[in-house]
Design a protein that fits this description.
By secondary structure, this protein is an alpha/beta fold. Helix content is 36%, strand content 29%. Helix 5 links the parallel strand 10 and strand 11. The protein is globular. It starts with a helix and ends with a helix.
């Protein structure tokens, strides 16, 4: 057969194959939006370059890759994060959120993945021996007349209201958009102490003139939150958590972000 004719005869077959391939539908990955607290190290924060970082950020990115969905991460004001989830603007909250009965009435949580206590942070001063000492201890930091800073909408605020204010101890609770702002005010003396999750306290005060005076045994546990009707995403996250916790990646991320904090 003439070589040129043979090549021409093959063109319809090539064209037919190309058209067939073009007709195969491309299945797009489902994109889920994770809302985070932008100032909650070591679990979630926005770094100097504007990128999301932290333990929860890395864990959910691993889960997304493992379970085959795409992930977008956006910062959301913490006191508005649950309403934002319920409105559908975001699809999950993976940002050191404590599982509470009040929140369970509004959202669904994954299996717990971490536990924490609350910490009371105070200023340090130099003692008579030249060594740094805490200006206040766990008890004097939240006595009557003290100004205690917390992030609004957190379990730290709830604990103070239920266990200090409700008991008639006249501390002044000063609310902040995030814990880091409270620590800034504590350093310059605008408040006398700050209450926050212990891992965040230890991470945020490293290298500063602040110290943890003590912890409050609240036994809080963290979970990732989704809308109550989003059973598909809840199943994906729970299976993803099971897989990462059974892998070396979990230990590596714990060591990177949480051990030694």
């Amino acid at each position: 057969m003439n070589k040129k004719f043979s090549q021409l005869a093959a063109y319809p077959l090539v064209l037919s194959l190309a058209l067939s391939l073009a007709s195969i539908p491309v299945v797009a990955q489902t994109v889920y939006v994770d809302g985070i607290d932008a100032a909650f190290p070591p679990f979630s924060f926005i770094n100097a370059q504007g990128d999301a970082e932290g333990f929860d950020v890395d864990v959910v990115r691993w889960i997304a890759e493992e379970m085959g969905f795409a992930l977008e991460i956006v910062p959301v004001d913490w006191d508005a994060i649950v309403p934002t989830l319920k409105l559908g603007t975001i699809d999950l909250i993976a940002s050191g959120m404590t599982i509470t009965q009040e929140r369970l009435e509004q959202v669904a949580f994954t299996d717990p993945y971490w536990s924490i206590e609350l910490a009371v942070v105070v200023r340090e001063t130099i003692g008579s021996n030249g060594e740094p000492v805490n200006e206040k201890n766990l008890f004097t930091a939240i006595q009557a007349g003290q100004r205690v800073g917390v992030q609004r909408g957190t379990t730290s605020q709830s604990w103070l209201e239920e266990n200090v204010i409700a008991q008639g101890i006249a501390v002044e609770v000063v609310l902040y958009d995030n814990f880091l702002l409270a620590l800034d005010d504590l350093e310059i003396g605008r408040i006398t102490s700050a209450v926050m999750d212990e891992p965040t306290a230890l991470s945020a005060i490293s290298g500063s003139s602040l110290a943890v005076a003590g912890t409050i045994a609240t036994g809080e546990i963290y979970g990732y939150a989704v809308r109550t009707d989003d059973s598909e995403l809840l199943t994906l996250l729970n299976e993803g958590l099971r897989r990462i916790q059974a892998s070396s990646a979990w230990d590596e991320l714990v060591a990177k972000w949480l051990i030694g904090q």
